[in-house]
Amino acid sequence: HYHCSTTCGTTSIVHLFEWRWRDIAEECENYLGPNGFDAVQISPPSENVVVAQPWRPWWERYQPISYKLCSRSGTEQELRDMISRCNKAGVKIYADVVINHMCSASAGEGRRSTCGSYFNASKEEFPSVPYSASHFNDDKCTTASGNIENYQDIYQVRDCRLVGLLDLAHRKEHVRERVASYMNSLLDMGVAGFRVDACKHMWPQDLNAIYGQLHNLNTEWFPEGSRPFIYQEVIDLGGEPIKASEYSGLGHVTEFKYGAKLGSVIRRWNRDKLADLKTFGESWGLMPSNQALVFVDNHDNQRGHGAGGTSILTFWEPRMYKMAVAFMLAHPYGVTRLMSSYRWDRRLLDGKDQNDWMGPPSYPDGSTKPVPINPDGSCGGDWVCEHRWHQIRNMVTFRNVAHGQPLSNWWDNGENQIAFGRGDRGFIVINNDDCTLDASLQTGMPAGCYCDVISGQRTAAGTGCTGKRITVGEDGRARFSIKASEEDPFVAIHSGSKL
Ligand code: LM2
Ligand code: CA
Question: Which of 75, 198, 369, 448 could form a disulfide bond with 361, CB atoms 3.0-4.6 angstroms apart?
Answer without folding.
Answer: 369
